[in-house]
Design a protein that fits this description.
498 residues, alpha/beta, Purple Acid Phosphatase, chain A, domain 2, 5'-nucleotidase,  domain 2, eight-stranded mixed β-sheet, six-stranded mixed β-sheet, 14 helices, 25 strands, disordered N terminus
Length: 498
Amino acid sequence: MKDFPTEKTIPAVFRSFRCLILCFSLAVCLNSSGRELSLRVIQTTDLHGSIDHGALAKTAALVDRETAAAGGPGSSIRIDCGDLVQGSFAMTMPEGRALMIRVLNFLQFDVFIPGNHDFEFGSGMLLPLLRDFRGSVLALNLDWPEAPVRPWQIFKRAGLNVSVIGIAYPSLDRMFLPEVMGKARQLPVAGQLERIIPDVMRARPDVIILALHAGEQSWLGPDFRLFDLIRKYPQIDLILCGHSHQAEAGAALGRSAWRMQAPAHAAGIAVADITFDTEKKRIVSMKSRIVPADKVPEHPAVKKMVGPVRNRSFRLGRRLVAEVPSALRPPEKREYSSALTKLYGKAIMDCTGAEIVFYGVNSRFQTGPGTVNLFQLYRLMPYADHPVTVDLTAGEIRRILEEQISIHRKNGPYQAPTGITFAFSRRKLQSISLESTGRPLESGRLYRTAFSSYIFSGSGRCRTLHEIVKNKKYRAYPQTTYEAVAAFLMKTYPVKSK
């Protein structure tokens, strides 16, 4: 495991504009004999359903140990920053996703911040999980009347008023179709912060924590990153990041805030120890560290909770789906398709009736020839998206194909075409023909074309595609692409051998 820095300490300067004004106005009567209170902040993030190999149970042991060392739940606050219930085969099962919430409840987590992958199975799946969470779900940028979501909350811990502000992943509307988001609507981060900060300050917090499912470089809005947020709101003392999978033991952000981020996939936790002087009315020390989980024993109770779910996922994952005649692998650097991309395309055609499909691989895993089981299929397709179809002209298809070829040449997230053949001359696209007829695409007709719902929604990866489809009527299918491919495999390549 990577060695993380064990400790970072904030320089001995006033850490926020708010503290500067308070201390200056009270400077005459202050002395060094003030009472100091200690608060411990424990963070996990991007756990991604990592129940295998004892990872979750080891991380749980760390949370339990650090909580006890701080003096118990009353002297600490535990926060998870999202991407909790997706990322392993066990999370494809309802009981797998429910297990993750049960573990947070068992460890008495105070706050959960929804991540983008938490919405992957749809808001209808996520809603009961949020309702089962015993702590507070915080996300100022989510308008979701059905869900127990608040923008911020104040906690009384270690004799201090601790305000926690939550921000869910800020680009959900560019990842998921409205059909997936349901009644959950995304709000602009900047506008909502401006609205709630006066209320937060009226609560007279001693410590303000911003917990978000976004990394330091993530866009929080148009031309608005985390640094811009801190510059505008210097009241914030500690920032807990997520999403980027970049563990950070501690680093200053601007002149007023301190940032940390726990390792992903249950590889450890992040811990911040805050010392607050009640006479000086300010934080006098903040130390943070990463605590890796590789060398600790599993938490016995959590290990027992995880066992039945893990065992069932192992049994289910070994179930055979198909017996394929060739290797299923991503295209090589000079290839525009492979047996794997053709399989995806034909399965989506079978599901949707599309004539043309653009669908890329999102895993470097490969398998076959021979039998393929459910676990191997999940390794090939680890994300839950849906097929989307839209009617396009020959000219629009040409523009999209040219963009995808350019992305492929740059080793980007290429959407491989199925259902068409094309020819080049001097690296320029010369002709496109419909594979089923062998005839060139006709300028006077529309072609039903299918995409991944993630790419179609506007992920920012395919600008030409997004520009073409953003105002077009589309059809989304309830089947996931994973389900469509599984059904196609079982029908086309049934298992013959034992």
